[in-house]
Amino acid sequence: MFDWLQHIADWLIYTVFGISAQSHLGEALNFFVYDTIKILILLFFITFLMGIVNSYFPIDRIKNFLSRNKLYGGEYVIASTFGAVTPFCSCSSVPLFIGFVKGGIPLGVTFAFLVTSPLVNEVAVAIFLGMFGLKTTLIYVLSGILLGIISGAILARMKLEPLLTDWVRKIWEHAEAERESFEAKKQSIAQRLPSIVKEAFGIVKNVVVYVLIGIAIGASMHGFVPEGFFEQYIGKDTWYAVPLAVILGVPMYANAAGIIPVIQVFVAKGIPIGTSLAFMMAVVGLSIPEATLLKKVMTTKLVLIFFGVVTACIMISGYVFNLIL
Questions:
Q1: Percent of the chain residues topping a pLDDT of 90
Q2: I need a labelling partner for 62 at 20 to 30 A (CA). Which of 9, 70, 80, 283 fits?
Q3: Which residues pair with 164 in a beta bridge?
C-alpha cells in the first residue's frame, strides 16, 4: 500500500543525500522519512472519518442516553466504544469523566469510558495501522475496548461510590444531574465537511510535534540500538517481562502519537508485541498527572483501586497477546 513512500524515502536519503543504505545513519533517516509521511497521511484521513462520526454522535447526546436508559450491561459497551472514538489522552479525558459523574451516570460505566478513551483513538489507530498492519490494529482496538468494559464492570461490582469525594456527593445530594438534550444541527454531510476538514487538520497540527519526536526516537533506536538489546531485559522467555513493562510504564506519561513509534522499534528489536503493547497501554492509559486530576472526584483509596484494577487488566492482556500474536 505504501511502497511508493518507501521509494521516495530511499531516493531522498540514499540518492539525493548520498547516505549509505548500510550505515546506521542512513537506516535511521530512511525510517524517519518513511514513517513520518505515512503516519501523517493516515492520521489526517482517519481523523477526518472520525470527525464525521463524532458530528453525528455528540458527547452530550451519549451522556444523556447512558444516564436515562437501563441497558443491562450494554452501557459498558457503549461507554467503552465511545471512549475509543474520542481523541483524548488520559489527562484530557478526566474533565469529561467528571462531567459523566456530575451527570449521574453509574460509576462503573464512567470508568469504562475513562479506561478506553486514552488507549484507543483515531491518532493511535492511524499510527498502529501504518506500523503494524490491519490485523494487529484490529486486535489492539478490540482489546482496548474490552479492557474498558472489563475494568468498568469489575469496578462497578466493588460498590465504590462511597469513595468519591464530598464534592461529588454534594452534587448528587443537593442537585439533580444536569441532562441537557442536544440536537445535532440539521446539516448535510456536504455542509459539515469544511468544519470537519478544519478539525482534522487541527488535530494533526496539535500532535505533529509528538509524532515527529516519537518517530525520531524510534528511528534512532531502529538505526543505532543493536539487536537483542531490549530482549535481554524484557524478552519472551522471562515470566516477569509483562509485569516489568507495565510497572515501568505506569509512572511515565505520553500520548499515543509519541509512544507508538517507540513500540514499533521494541517489536523490531525482539520484544514480543504483547509485552510492547502492555508497556504502551500503561504509558498512555495511566499516569501521575491523571491521578492528580482524578483527586477532584476520587479519594486516594479509590484512585489506587482504579489504577490497580487497570494495571492488572493490562498485564493479563499482555500475556494473552503474547500467546496469540
A1: 2
A2: 283
A3: 298
